[in-house]
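Lab notes, practical 5.
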Amino acid sequence: MPETARDPLPDDADPGDLLAAYLTVHAQGAPVPAVLYARGEALHQRLVATPPASVAWGRFLVAQGQLAAEALGDDQAASRYFLAALTSVAVHNDHEVGVAAGYNQGVLHERRGGHRGLGKALHAYRAAASEGLRLGVLAPCTIQAALAVERLTVAGGGRLEPGDAGLLKLAWMAWLHLRRASAVLDAELRADLERSLAAYLLPDHGDEVPGLEQAWTAWPPHQLTVAGDAWNDHHPAVIAGLYAAAADAAAHLADAGADPGTAYRAQAERLRSG
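Output from the prediction step:
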């Protein structure tokens, strides 16, 4: 990717190569985001008339929207890119792009604030989480959207409706699935998941550690479909993973002791070895 915004795009450059170069720089953290955004604008102008039917195009649109919002503070440009990314899903069929675009639209609405902005943000987050979890898109943006629904609802003084509580349960299930696959999540997102699990599930059973399983399986829904397979909340691997996650989440309890996760960790080991 050229270093200056004024360098012309080579006429004979393959669009796929240009998109790949852009996404590589974006993923690594562009040293001068405004320059990368300007390069993206030139690339968009070149390709928008006949956009590639590729996942890279959708991810490029999301990345440009993020740069517009975060580096330039241009919410209008960001929104245009996110809406274009949503539209692109019908062509390349990468639903993670759609979820990411929907989640980022929610971030824009939330940043505007006010009753209207927060209402639109809640709607965008709910739509992104619902679609992502329905389609088994186990990506950070899906989990972030579900957690944002809970966060905005509680911050507004409300209680989770059954449907939104179900999104939170499925977000936890997605997290357990990713933990089992040894996927690496951002530290902040991981901490948010642990805090929510601690707040909603760990206090419900007091000192009775096995009661966590009862609280967990009593909370609907009871399965998450991932790549055509049902990830059931009562499956032994899920329960063992739940106790392992609870061992980390216990540190977020207000009355946490020296190692509040000891009992949960021991239960997870018993289940794994059994």
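Observations recorded by the TA: Strands lie at 223-226, 229-232. The longest helix spans residues 114-134.
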